Hints:
Two copies of one chain form a homodimer. Chain A has helices at 19-30, 47-52, 72-82, 93-127, 135-158, 169-183, 193-203, 209-212, and strands spanning 11-14, 36-39, 60-62, 68-70. Chain A has 230 residues and is of the alpha+beta class. In chain A, strands 2-1-3-4 form a four-stranded mixed sheet, with helices on one face. In chain A, strand 3 and strand 4 form a beta hairpin. Chain A is globular. Chain A starts with 10 loop residues before the first strand and ends in an 18-residue tail after the last helix. The model of chain A has no long low-confidence stretch (mean pLDDT 95). Chains A and B meet through helix 3 and helix 4 of A and helix 3 and helix 4 of B.
Amino acid sequence: xxxxxxxxxxxxxxxxxxxxxxxxxxxxxxxxxxxxxxxxxxxxxxxxxxxxxxxxxxxxxxxxxxxxxxxxxxxxxxxxxxxxxxxxxxxxxxxxxxxxxxxxxxxxxxxxxxxxxxxxxxxxxxxxxxxxxxxxxxxxxxxxxxxxxxxxxxxxxxxxxxxxxxxxxxxxxxxxxxxxxxxxxxxxxxxxxxxxxxxxxxxxxxxxxxxxxxxxxxxxxxxxxxxxxx
Amino acid sequence: xxxxxxxxxxxxxxxxxxxxxxxxxxxxxxxxxxxxxxxxxxxxxxxxxxxxxxxxxxxxxxxxxxxxxxxxxxxxxxxxxxxxxxxxxxxxxxxxxxxxxxxxxxxxxxxxxxxxxxxxxxxxxxxxxxxxxxxxxxxxxxxxxxxxxxxxxxxxxxxxxxxxxxxxxxxxxxxxxxxxxxxxxxxxxxxxxxxxxxxxxxxxxxxxxxxxxxxxxxxxxxxxxxxxxx
Lengths: 230, 230
């Protein structure tokens, strides 16, 4: 009897325009960790998926060890602890606090004020049969994004990357949200030069390549989405 | 010239019925770290406070070293790193992932489905001049809380505390949210015996005492709020 080595695989359950899913893809790519993607229509609340994550949300990461991790915060902290060679969370408690503060800023505040108003309204909402996009939500999202792009400009005038001298989870989180909006053509880059320069630097990292190749069936990306010189 | 030792102090900017503020108070008390409380009406967006936390939210912790930490996740991770003697976040990556998952569950999912629908509608909303409480929001909160109390029961039937054998940030986060609702008399404890037994155990911890002494001007607590035998 010959033993075959079973090829165990890391699996990421994701959705294309979920910024939290994209953040995890970027973290894994920055750390050179290979993974397979499984597209999950999480709003269908399939039984098999609800067992993995009773919160019913993407991303969910199944490590080859079998451990199941739900949610971007949980996954990013875990990957930092287990694969620390490429550090994305800072080296000292104060630096980590600033990186985590900005991760929260984009994943909570930006998400509520911008991402949900635009990405959710324009895409996921129709799958939930919740009617057509709300024009007041879209207007709010398009107004709010300016303050956040100004904030990115403010930070990058003072620092090399958003949270300090090193590329970190703060940059990943902000870029993941903006990449979803950019896919829809909803980022007014030309009114925010510093933010645009920062995003161009993130966009040209090797970890970003697979994100730029994304093609949603029936919803092609905005013309400049892949363009490194936008 | 005699030198006087300056007594530097840790300051927590908080709001009474902010579950995130209560969570930080509990973490500090569990770790035996002394602090002064400053009540912050964060919705007034006072300039001095916006400088501390541009997100304009409580809690904000000013350490005696001068470092400023914003938000419960950031603060709790920082305190675990700097004051690890009393561990509240687990000892291994997998255990920490489960504790963080449940911290997120209560601070994001429970917050959105229950806390905001009841605490925000009944208290903070009037300070924002956003009108009277929405009866549909309150109805939603009162319905949703049952699923979460069942989930606490499910977890505590299998584990000593919510995330495992040790008392952790998962218990603190869940109890902080429930204590705000309990202050308003909005927790149907008698329909959820396992959750009630778990909460009675949390409530009797020394770290919980100051929470039970809270008295908001003009809004006294529900009759059983302090009662350890409720």
